[in-house]
Amino acid sequence: MRILFQHTDLKNSLTFAKILSMADYNEDITVRKSVLEMLTIANEYCYFIQNVENKTDHGILEFIYRIGPLMYLKGTLIPGITVQNPEANERFVTAEEWENTFYVLRKKLGTKDEFWIIDPQYINENEPVKASLAENLTDIYQDMEDFILLYQKNTLAARENAVNECRNLFATHWGYRITNLMPKIHHLLHESEQEPPAFLQTLDNL
Asked: Quick check: pTM over 0.90?
């Protein structure tokens, strides 16, 4: 069976996953349900980012608000794998593609893009550092796109490397990016619903 996982809509991705899961792959870890589900979510994410010029800033925030926790959950379920041919590993997203994606996202998000975080990967982990929604989203896109493109080469060596790299990068890269994003996005979507501090309410009544 030839594996095709070009960027399609979620319905087609799920159909693909269902068909593939019925195949007899015996002990092949690279086609476990958890891997196929990660592919499906990665595909949906990349398809959205590649069409982000047609989205509003609010639409982008709502999409990440919903898919971000799901991506993180699926990342925790990626199985460990012993790679037989590590030389088959590849990266596909170029620096130019990364920059183009980043600038489109930053333009869309405007003043909402920058925020401050405490980054445990930063050398001074107790000091806040300035972060960018667009930068974090683009970093996630790069890892997900590389995962999909390597996996769909559909050799065992390529699939093993794709799964292993996605798992490793979850631990060291894109997993951190999701946890950086979610508090800020939650705040942006819900700040209008929050009650002002008690002292401000008192001032309003003066």
From this structure: no
* Domains defined for the chain, CATH in brackets: 10-204 (1.20.120.1550)
More confident residue, 154 or 50: 50
Residues 96-145: tens digit of each pLDDT = 999 999 999 999 999 999 999 887 777 676 788 899 999 999 999 999 99
3-class DSSP string for the chain: CCCCCCCCCHHHHHHHHHHHHCCCCCCCHHHCHHHHHHHHHHHHHHHHHHCHHHCCHHHHHHHHHHHHHHHHHHHHCCCCCCCCCHHHCCCCCCHHHHHHHHHHHHHHHHHHCEEEEECCCCCCCCCEEEEEHHHHHHHHHHHHHHHHHHHCCCCHHHHHHHHHHHHHHHHHHHHHHHHHHHHHHHHHHHHHHCCCCHHHHHHHCC
